[in-house]
Design a protein that fits this description.
The chain has 188 residues and is an alpha/beta fold. It has one domain: Rossmann fold, CATH 3.40.50. 36% of the residues lie in helices and 15% in strands. Strands 2-1-3-4-5 form a five-stranded parallel β-sheet, sandwiched between helices. Helix 4 links the parallel strand 4 and strand 5. The two termini are 18 Å apart. The mean pLDDT is 94.
Length: 188
C-alpha cells in the first residue's frame, strides 16, 4: 500500500433495517481493512427527503450529513438492491449531499461501492446505479475488484463477522485495494 498516513472513511449503508445484511457486511469489511483506514458510519435514516425548496434554509440533518461527508477522506457505500436499483434512502442521501448545485459534499472523494443480497447476483444492478451517480458527482470510484456479495445472508454472521475464509480473503483484497485507491486519487 502507498504510504500516506491515516485516512478517514465515511461508511454509508443503503439499508435502514436493524438486522440488515448490508450493515453486518459493512462491519465485517471494516474489520479486515488495513490499519491505515479508520471508519465512521454516516447514518442516513433521519435525512428528510430532498426538496429543492429547502436549499436556502436546509434542515439541520442535511447540514450535519454534509459536514460528516466533507470530514471524510473517502466514502464506502454498502448497499442492497431494491427492484434492481438503488434503495430510496441511499438515493436521497446522494441527492442531499450533492445539493444545492455547486455545493456538493461528494466532489473529489474517492469511493468504493459494495453490494450484497441473499440472491445470487449480489445486488449487481444497485451497485452499478450507485456508480453511475458517483461518476456525475466527480467521485473517483474503485473499479477493481468489483464487489458483489451474492448469498450474503450466509456469508456474514449476526455479529458482523465473515463465516468463511474465502469470503474474508476476498473482502480483505477489496479493502486493501480501496486503501491504495484512496492514496492514489484523494485530493490534498
Amino acid at each position: 500500500m502507498a504510504s500516506g498516513g491515516q485516512n478517514k472513511v465515511g461508511v454509508i449503508v443503503g439499508s435502514l433495517r436493524k438486522g440488515s445484511i448490508n450493515k453486518r457486511l459493512a462491519h465485517a469489511l471494516t474489520g479486515v481493512a488495513p490499519p491505515s483506514l479508520t471508519f465512521e458510519t454516516i447514518d442516513i435514516a433521519s435525512l428528510p427527503i430532498y426538496n429543492q425548496d429547502l436549499d436556502a434554509n436546509p434542515p439541520p440533518e442535511w447540514v450535519s450529513f454534509k459536514q460528516r461527508v466533507r470530514a471524510s477522506d473517502a466514502i464506502l457505500f454498502v448497499t442492497p438492491e431494491y427492484n434492481r436499483s438503488i434503495p430510496s434512502p441511499l438515493k436521497n442521501a446522494i441527492d442531499v449531499g450533492s445539493r444545492p448545485y455547486g455545493d456538493s459534499a461528494w466532489s473529489g472523494k474517492p469511493a468504493a461501492v459494495v453490494s450484497a443480497s441473499p440472491s445470487a447476483i449480489g445486488g449487481f444492478g444497485s451497485n452499478h446505479h450507485v456508480r453511475q451517480c458517483l461518476v456525475f458527482l466527480d467521485m473517483p470510484v474503485l473499479q477493481q475488484p468489483e464487489a458483489y456479495f451474492g448469498g450474503a445472508d450466509k456469508l456474514v454472521d449476526d455479529q458482523g463477522q465473515f463465516t468463511n475464509e474465502a469470503t474474508k480473503g476476498f473482502a480483505t483484497k477489496i479493502m486493501s485495494a480501496f486503501a491504495d485507491w484512496i492514496e492514489r486519487t484523494k485530493k490534498s
